[in-house]
Each structure stands twice: as C-alpha cells, then as structure tokens.
Amino acid sequence: MTQAAKKQILKTRTQGLISSHSRSLEAMILTPRLEIVTAENTKTAKNDSLCSLTLNSVPLLGYLPFLGPNLHHDFTKLAKTYGPIYKLKLGSKLCFVITSPTLVKQVVRDHDTIFSNRDATVAAQVASYGGIDIAFGTYGPDWRRLRKVFVSHMLSNANIDACYALRKEEVHKSLNYIHGKAGSAVDLGEVAFLTSINTLKRMIWGGTLQEEKGATDIGIEFRKVVTEIMGLLAKPNVSDFFPVLARFDIQGIRRQQQKAISVTEKIFTSAIEIQMSMPPAENEGLQQKHGRKDLLQFLLEHNKDSATPLTMQELLALLTDVMVGGTDTTTTTVEWVMTELMQNPDELRKVQEELTEIVGLNTLVEEFHLPKLHYLDAVIKETFRLHPALPLLVPRLPTQSTTVGGYNIPNGSSVYLNIWANQRDPSVWDSPLEFRPKRFLNDQSKFDYKGNRFEYLPFGSGRRICAGLPLAERTLIYVLASFLHSFEWRLPYGTNLDLSERFGVVTRKMTPLVAIPTPRLSKLELYT
Ligand code: HEM
C-alpha cells in the first residue's frame, strides 16, 4: 500500500476520535457560564481528600448536553484530560467512566461479584421483560439458573458440533444467493444477518417450525425489528436520566419498544406453542432425525423435570437475548472485517492465499479447515481490536459502594468500561490506529476472547462475559472464510469505503458495506 493511502486511512480513523461533537464538547467545557459541580461525597479512599474528577456541567442536565452521538469517542477524549477514572452526571444519574486496563481489571475481576449487575435503561427493561433475562437480569440465583440452562445446552461443544450441518446449509444458501448476484452490488451486512438469524432460528426451533409447516421466512422481518429494538436501546431517553419523569414516557421510547418487542414475541410464542402441542412421538422422531434437540425442545423438557421451571416470560426473555443479541453483533463484525480487508488489499490477498492453500479452489470451506486459518483468525482479532461491537460493553452497576483505583464508586452508579479506548491505547499497542493483523500472529494463544487480557476485551470479561461466545466465535470465522474463499470482492465503481461509526448498544458502520462479488472457485456446481 502506498504511503498516501496509509495516511488517508489514519486520517479517517483519527476523525473518529475527534468528531465535530467533541469539538463542541470541548468548547462547552471551557465556557465560563457553566455551573461547576463541586465534588460531592466522593473521596479518595487513599488520602480522604476530595477527588477532582467531577466535570463541569449544566444544572439539572449535568454533562448530558455536551455528549455527541459517539459516546465512546467523547469518553475517550475526556479520559485524556481527566484520567483513567472520572465521573460525570448525566441528568440525575451519576456515571463513572473507566479506561485503563488495570482499573478495568479491578471491576471485572477483583470486584466481579459487586459489579455483576447491569444498569438497565427503560428500553432495556422492556426488551428484557422487566430485567429477567440474561443480559440485563440482576445477578443472583434466577440469573444464574437462566444463564446456566442456556450455556449448558445451547453452547455445549456437543451441541455446537451437532449444529454444524445447519450452519453449513445456511452458509451454502448464502453463497448461492451471492453467486446469483455476481457482478452486481451486494449488501454484505444483510447477507451476514440472514445467515446468522437463519442459523440461530434453526438451532432454537428448527426442528419444529419448518417451512413446510407454513412458517414464512422471518429473516427480513426480523432484521427490521432487531434494528428497531437496538436503535431504541441506544437512544438517549429522558426517562433514564430523570427517573422521576419515567412514567410520562416523554419521547415515547417505552411505547415504541413495547411495540417492537410484541413483534418478536408473536414469533417466539408461535414457536413455543407449536412445540408444546406436539405429540411426544413426533417430537422424539424429530430429535432422532436431527440427532440433537433444538433449544426449545430442551428448555421445555427441562421445565418438566425441574423443581424451578422457567416461566413463559423467562423463556421469551431468553429467546430475545439470543435472537436480538446474537445477530446484530455477528453481522456488524462481518461487515467490519470485510471493510478492513477491502481497505487493506495486501491483507485481503494474504487471507485469500491462505484459503487457497488450506482449502483449495475445488471445494468449499468446512469447519475442520477453520483451526488452520491462522491469518484469518488474526484479521478477525485485529478487527475486534479496532471495532469492538460493544465499545463500552454493557454498563455495570455496583451493588455496594466500592473503591476502584483509589476512588469510591457509590452503590447504584452506572459504570462504563471503555474497552474501545484501551484497544487503541498507544501505550499498549504499537501504531494502534493501523490495521496490522500480524500483531496477533506470533503468539496466538496470548490473545483469545476469554477476557483474561484486560487491554483486549471484545467479548467482555468476568461473570457477565458474552454468554454466546463459543457460538459467535465459530459462526464468525466460518461465514467470513466462506465469503472470502468463494468470491473476489470489489467496491462499486466510484464509491469510497466509509470507516465512520454509529454508536449504539452495538456500534455499527455508519453506512452499510456494499460490494461486488466475482466467483473464485473452479466449479460452478460448488455454488448451487
Ligand atoms: C461477534 C459476536 C458477539 C460479540 C462481539 C458479543 C459481545 C458481547 C459483549 C461485549 C457482551 C457484554 C459482556 C460484558 O459486559 O462483560 C455480551 C453479552 C452477551 N452476549 Fe454477546 N456477543 C456476540 C455474540 C453473541 C451471540 C451469538 C449470543 C447468543 C447466541 C450472545 C449473547 C449474549 C448474552 C446473552 C449476553 C449477556 C451476558 C450477561 O449479561 O451475562 N452474544 N456480548
């Protein structure tokens, strides 16, 4: 790549760090008419002096008016001035932002139990059926039970292995679809979403709600509603910043979220009802035919045998977590990997050379090839470093006042862990804004996704680490390897790659990645 092209990439990335919103934010910090909030009762545990990390803010609104749409950019910029831990008021809510890997470790490892609660917004409360799911549930026996049931079945190696045939079928369908579009523009996020939702759908109720039973393909409808649910989860809501106003639902976010959730609920309820009304013999026949149980079959059988069966609401909340939480994250990451590769043609060439060598051009990628794809693995890790799907993870809520980095974090405040900043920190990473997969190649075991390296946490860490990690890891590399092995990709004539982000619960690309595929394999029948 030329020096000029490299410079352009760096410039685009740096623009992400210094947005126009950050500039107005800077101006606001310096504006003298702002009221300065004096440090309240926050004292350093070490020397008992008042800490100096409360930011200037506007009465009542706190720091709210100064934050731009990309919260992680603003938080990173503030950390440069106020240090690795600072607090700010957003409305009436006290928030702490933690940026250094050492302090992140204190939260997710040293005080993991205390910080194992979530701060569920109004939109999250609705999406999680009142906080009874895995993602927003209060840490305790009910949450543990739900997470255990889910992880022990859905994410056991045996089940993930048994579901390979499903993943394969869905990936092949996507390759066939892309092949049909050869030479014309394809929205890669959309294809990745459909692959991911169809695979998940079949893992959950594939054996019971088949197409021949009259169910229509829910993929497209689902993407629309997932986008809506995620959008509402990310939308700043007066009700969250001023809980006393929550009952008025001034922006209508609660109402809109209820409407969106009613769409997914209808789909889930129908699947549950079909499964519950199925005669036992038919049910068993399906299990034998597929050589495994669907998640729904498993959950309903679990309910029959368990002293503490899951309620209908818990079932719905769990399905929402999986179908909503599992799809947008995977899709966004596929889009970012493809974007980075198209931006860095040398890296794309290396990935494709590896695929040609390991898989060959006379056959399709199989899961047994995946552990040998070291370069692609490094590319995915590097993409996660620069573009973690959840740059601030999911905010935590301490159950008791606790000291972190010498500062007291009071019970009930929101705690943001800025992993986006840590993963771009120049004191940790060499040339952090450059896309350099090689940094992950030398010692592959050094950086995994298990949350033990606190400078690199794309799936979080501790008790609340991503519950879908093993499945996400397998799906992601399989989908990417297949897309990159089967096709050459280029941008439509006259278009430029856009690397800007749109912050949300899942931070997506600002503009969808659209690219033109050309078949790469030797035989046409491989695509059919
Ligand atoms: C590229 C794919 C994915 C990424 C990057 C990702 C990332 C994350 C992150 C960062 C968290 C928060 C962790 C923390 O706070 O420490 C999380 C939580 C969660 N994820 Fe994922 N995720 C992905 C895919 C999935 C999939 C496929 C599923 C389900 C099948 C899933 C289900 C969940 C659930 C249920 C939680 C909440 C866990 C809890 O609070 O205990 N995720 N994910």
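The CA atoms of residues 232 and 253 lie 7 Å apart.
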